[in-house]
Amino acid sequence: MSERPVRIGVDIGGTFTDVLLFDAEQRRFVIEKVLTTPDAPATAVGEGVGSSLTAGARGGPDVQQVIHGTTLVTNALIERRGSQSALITTKGFRDAVEMGREHRYDLYDIFLEMPAPLVRRRWRLELDERTAADGTVLKPVDPDDLAGLVEQIRNEGIEAVGVALLHSYRNPANERTVGEQLSGIAPDLTFTLSSDVAPEIREYERVSTTLANVYVRPLVDRYLGELTDVLRGKDIESELLIMLSSGGLCTVDTARAYPIRLVESGPAAGALAASRYGQELELPNLLSFDMGGTTAKACLVDNGEPMISTEFEVSRVYRFKKGSGLPVKVPVIEMIEIGAGGGSIASIDNLGLLKVGPQSAGSDPGPVCYGRGGEQPTVTDADLLLGYLDPGFFLGGEMSLDSSATGQAVESNIANPLGIDVTQAAWGIHQVVNENMANAARVHAVEQGKDPRKYPVFAFGGAGPVHAWGVAQILGAPEMIVPAGAGVLSTVGFLSAPLAFDFVRSLNGLLDDLDWQELNRLMTEMEVEGRDLLAEAGVPDEQMTFTRLAELRYAGQGHEITVELGHGQFSTESITDITQRFEAEYTRLYQRSAPGNPIEAVNWRVLVSGPSRNLPLDLLSSEEPAATHDAARKGVRSIYLPENAGFGEVPVYDRYLLGPGMSFEGPAIIEERESTAVVNTPARIDVDRLGNLRVSRTDS
Length: 700
Prior knowledge:
This protein is of the alpha+beta class. The chain has 6 domains: 6-76 and 221-262, 2-Layer Sandwich (Nucleotidyltransferase, domain 5); 80-216, Dna Topoisomerase Vi A Subunit, Chain: A, domain 2, CATH 3.40.1360.10; 266-307 and 334-340 and 434-496, ATPase, nucleotide binding domain (Nucleotidyltransferase, domain 5, 2-Layer Sandwich); 344-431, no CATH class; 500-609, Dna Ligase, domain 1; 623-697, no CATH class. The strands form 8 sheets. Strands 13, 14, 15, 20, 23, 24, 29, 30, 31, 32 and 33 form an 11-stranded mixed beta sheet that branches. Strands 3-2-1-4-11-12 form a 6-stranded mixed beta sheet, with helices on both faces.
């Protein structure tokens, strides 16, 4: 491991690109926030990294690692701007990816739209081969048959091919043969084997994941190449690591091979950062609330860790309606996302009601107040009119906001159509978006069997601290926590995450009938693959940890739950332990179990990870604090107070001058360069030992 002292985390959002530099030698953080460049995202990365190095008085050779998360994969799938792709599948199964589950996500919508496959039917090609459900190869691949398909692909100008043959999760021999021949006769083609990216049961999900992976592979490959070149232009020759959707890190080579694993990499980092703070504060249960410029994400951190799901949907026809998207079988941190950010556009719908989002102004043109050509009012515009944002101190004064143009936009687009004044319209926008986010968080918690009233709201993102107190009150949460550097907190997740990867194999059957010898072989195979992968990334063997998991269900059920397993060899003697673990987890989730019913295994997983990085989180608020909270006051500002249904003057505090142990009363505004914490009702505000703001109600 390099002795270079600097590590940099970079998060590209819809509006801003956040950079956090940590200098281990000087024990200091440097924070930078620049506008995202949507057409060339690496450009903003280069600008932010360069600025952080200059501010930290460091150069490229001092950098040990750059760790990055991106929404590139998600955006490419949503906007359908991936590669021209083809599918090679078993004869008779070309339409399985279009038939899907034959499930209607809305029973009463007679104009129901289903997500279109990533590959047109004409490019879904059939190979005359067959593997049985038990893994027996009934018909091997005919090289001449495959060569004919490759000729078709080349004639169509296809650059990427997904290979998903029937039952390859059980025996990948035929897929491996196809891969070897493609490498030989068509080395210019990018291809993905389903047995590499999603070797698990369920045909539709496996094929969908394979196609999504290969569809974005050339795009991600080009982007990572551009990003590497940009970093080299800053004299950074050290390793670039990429955040996975599951909260682990991987090398660039792994990201290029499995780009679908990056589908939620940015949001995952935020949830991971929240869990690190929770562990440090001995608060194992938190509601992570991340609100940026485009979306808001809520994630339950339970027992110190964010929950992990093994399936995710992308490119939904109805963005927030489950079942309307393409399923991908990859491990992701379980969270709910809604189109509610600072740039979310407010409008009047066909029924004459106020609506906020999911459309966003993004960074270009951005909200009206940015003065970059935006004409439609947004959440940030409303917050400015309510006095919650200082027009002269946005991004620490680097960017001025235009209040007059904002007022005119809200008046003409919202206030006049509703017959109300501008202030009422602005408060309506603010409150609607708070209600939307609170409702989404409540549903997310209830679906996990949790009571949101028991979870403190941990707020971050550029717009999170502005809205989180309102969301916390709607949810009935015990307190709101706002960390220092909240506007760029996802980057803390990057810098503290471990190198990690998740492997999966399907071995389906009742526990009483399971082939335990085969299971041990699969487990060993996954552990060896994981050990090799982390060793290539420089993780010593003694620092690797292995977690075994099983996806189990009662026989006859359609879905399974994930259960952590013990170590050692499995045998018939393991049935009792696995059964007890399954029933304990089942009871935790559903408050009941069904003892005596046979248990069926579906998938088996191994998570291999390296050590997490410990960051001195108290240094994020590293400036010398004032002697008292009164000395940290910057002045007063008139803001909208909902209890008064009007404006009133409240104190404004400089976040950098508030030190641990200070306590004062709200309403108040607390400002730092990247975000503003708004407490617009009576409350108690304490500063804890890490410099976090801890806000609680005084009337409870």
